[in-house]
TrEMBL record:
<keyword id="KW-0143">Chaperone</keyword>
<dbReference type="GO" id="GO:0051082">
    <property type="term" value="F:unfolded protein binding"/>
</dbReference>
<keyword id="KW-0653">Protein transport</keyword>
<comment type="subunit">
    <text>Homotetramer, a dimer of dimers. One homotetramer interacts with 1 SecA dimer.</text>
</comment>
<dbReference type="GO" id="GO:0006457">
    <property type="term" value="P:protein folding"/>
</dbReference>
<comment type="function">
    <text>One of the proteins required for the normal export of preproteins out of the cell cytoplasm. It is a molecular chaperone that binds to a subset of precursor proteins, maintaining them in a translocation-competent state. It also specifically binds to its receptor SecA.</text>
</comment>
<keyword id="KW-0813">Transport</keyword>
<dbReference type="GO" id="GO:0005737">
    <property type="term" value="C:cytoplasm"/>
</dbReference>
<dbReference type="InterPro" id="IPR035958">
    <property type="entry name" value="SecB-like_sf"/>
</dbReference>
<dbReference type="GO" id="GO:0051262">
    <property type="term" value="P:protein tetramerization"/>
</dbReference>
<keyword id="KW-0963">Cytoplasm</keyword>
<dbReference type="GO" id="GO:0015031">
    <property type="term" value="P:protein transport"/>
</dbReference>
<keyword id="KW-0811">Translocation</keyword>
<comment type="similarity">
    <text>Belongs to the SecB family.</text>
</comment>
<protein>
    <recommendedName>
        <fullName>Protein-export protein SecB</fullName>
    </recommendedName>
</protein>
<dbReference type="InterPro" id="IPR003708">
    <property type="entry name" value="SecB"/>
</dbReference>
<dbReference type="Pfam" id="PF02556">
    <property type="entry name" value="SecB"/>
</dbReference>
Length: 161
């Protein structure tokens, strides 16, 4: 759809539309490589969180957004557990301008998926015999802006070469 067609569609009351088609777990993994000895370890757990997101275009108006969270816990430099959840959603997006579409896929969609990721991570860790872990809220807007800045810097450095 050309920019003029989008503006005409918006003027006719056909502004951007978004719908959730499906939210589902794409992949899940839990490991406790040092169990049962790790349950006897004394010390402060060191917990690391790694978040990644991926967008796949399924057709002209449909996108799959996958938010993957990997939580690693170490006690006395031994891995207590590793929990990973890839939560995905299929989103229909119509009449979005390119910039707004990119921002919605990079900010709004991960925000929709995050509560599901948080719950599944908590369930895995508790079922693994460890203390419950509740992931803190994530500012996906800030993450998105950082990614855009990094992309601009990388593009600028490649242009200079």
């Amino acid at each position: 759809m050309t920019e003029e067609n989008k503006q005409a569609a918006n003027a006719q009351g056909h502004g951007p539309k978004m719908a959730f088609q499906k939210i589902y777990i794409k992949d899940v993994s839990f490991e406790a490589p040092n169990a049962p000895r790790v349950f006897q370890e004394q010390g402060q757990p060191n917990i690391k969180l790694n978040l990644n997101q991926k967008v796949d275009k399924l057709d002209d108006n449909t996108y799959e957004v996958t938010l993957t969270a990997t939580v690693t816990c170490e006690v006395n430099e031994k891995t207590a557990y590793l929990a990973e959840v890839a939560q995905a959603g299929i989103f229909s997006m119509e009449n979005f301008e390119e910039q707004a579409l990119h921002q919605t896929l990079g900010i709004y969609c991960p925000n929709v998926l995050f509560p599901y990721v948080r719950q599944e991570i908590s369930n895995l860790i508790t079922a693994g015999g460890f203390q419950p872990l509740l992931l803190q809220p994530v500012n996906f807007e800030q993450m998105y802006q950082q990614q855009m800045q990094q992309a601009q810097q990388q593009a600028a450095s490649e242009t200079k070469q």
